[in-house]
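Lab notes, practical 5.
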Amino acid sequence: MSTEASRGNPENQTSIEEFILLGFSDHPELQVLFFLVFLVLYTVTLMGNLLILLLVTASRPLHTPMYFLLGNLSFVDVCYVSATIPQMLANFLRDAKTISYAGCMAQIFALVSCVGSECILLAAMAYDRYVAICHPLLYTVMMNRKVCLQMVAGSWAGGFLNSLLHTLLASTLSFCGPKEIRHFMCDVPPLLELSCSDTALNNAVLHTASIFIGISPCVFIVVSYVFITLAILRIRSAEGRHKAFSTCTSHLTVVITFFGTALFNYNRPNAGYSLQVDTLVSTLYCIVTPMLNPIIYSLRNQDVKAAIRNLAGRKRSVF
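Output from the prediction step:
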């Protein structure tokens, strides 16, 4: 029965108690290998981001607006991966790769909340770099504690409200045919593709939210870095330019990786991509990016390296 024929017909609509997640299911012989690989990725992601949180909390030199925002980014990433990977790991070890309807809605809410919060938080971090480089004399005024708390609260509020809207709309969908989600997790686009309801409103809200929560922060970041670049080029000494650029490259690398994959995932057409492409793209922005964030900031940041050495030195002195 076609999706068009079944939409709006109550006789064809069934009550869904669980969904089947098809992601990675086309390689049954590799399920144990997938489990081990993603267990390692999950462990590395948790350890890296929790280390950043520990350093930002315990190291006094890192008690600055930039590292306060970085610590919150790490917290978002911990929530991010914890909303998706444990369910995936469990499915690797069982034949029935299912998730309950309530679990699916909860996963959508948690995932979309984290995506939205991270988009806004990355924009806040770009603003922090803009103020630090373009208005250094006003930095302590423009980036005081109250402003930082408002930025973080705004990022969580924006992500929460956006996610609440998507989750409520998703909960009204009807499902008439196969309950197989072409993904390794519950997300809005594959659920809309599966539904036999009229999804015009859902798609409109999805693309509108993508503009305000995804594209707008991305544009804000680009504009901020245009001004940052112009300001850096006016610095006379090569050493000064290099130092200014080095404070931005880590954030810019994270921005490109995250926004590139996330915007592709939420703004692509509903059809025309294979399960393998969907799985690859979602793996990049849901798993690989949160894992790389602390690595990128640690490898290119002398303050973080110094904090790690100080923390290691304190532990050795205790023992």
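Observations recorded by the TA: The two ends are 69 Å apart (CA to CA). The beta strands are 18-21, 98-100, 180-181.
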